[in-house]
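Readers outside the structure-tokenisation community will struggle with the description of the input data as it stands. What matters is that the chain and its backbone geometry are given together, residue for residue. For illustration, here is how one protein appears when written out as sequence plus structure tokens:

…
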Amino acid sequence: MIARLTGTLAETSADGAVIDVGGVGYQILASARTLDALGPVGGEVLVLTELQVREDGWTLFGFGSAGERETFRILTSVQGVGGRVALAILSTFTPDELARAVSSGDKAMIARANGVGPKLAARIANELQGKLGAPGLAGAAGSPIPRAGAAADAMSALANLGFKPAEASAAVAAANEELGPDASLDALVRLALRKAAK
């Protein structure tokens, strides 16, 4: 299982990107939101991933946050929602917006996503009731994964200390936002630990 990629953004397309990790190019499919967050070609990136193995091939999906990946997993548990439809939904809504639409049973809103008709929107609204978490609480889980480098090392340090990936990601993202992109690894880990302990 490939859980995440850290490397250089080699190229992007309308629905995906290629990330060079040690000379090997991994092609990922991603939501428009994740692709926008990757930054320019040639930059260092950290992407969470989900590998889907089917008879006709393997597909690697990429995500900019732990919350987005978790929502993708839940969405693809619904009959009729494949990986590409789930990405179309995540390109239209943040995890928090989708949780709000599902909890209020707003089928018309869900149907705004590409490839989602009224029947599928109704199925999503019905089957995912109570599975996406309370709206408003998805903020921490939906925090963007910081760029690679010190932030990736800080996430790894927190994971080694026993923090769950979503907790580590949210804490490092908050610390990174407060300290700025030039923060040292030491400062980032210290502040992330304080934030994770709250």
The chain is about 45% helix and 20% strand. The two ends are 32 Å apart (CA to CA). Residues 146-197 form a domain with the Helicase, Ruva Protein; domain 3 fold (CATH 1.10.8). The CA atoms of residues 82 and 185 lie 38 Å apart.
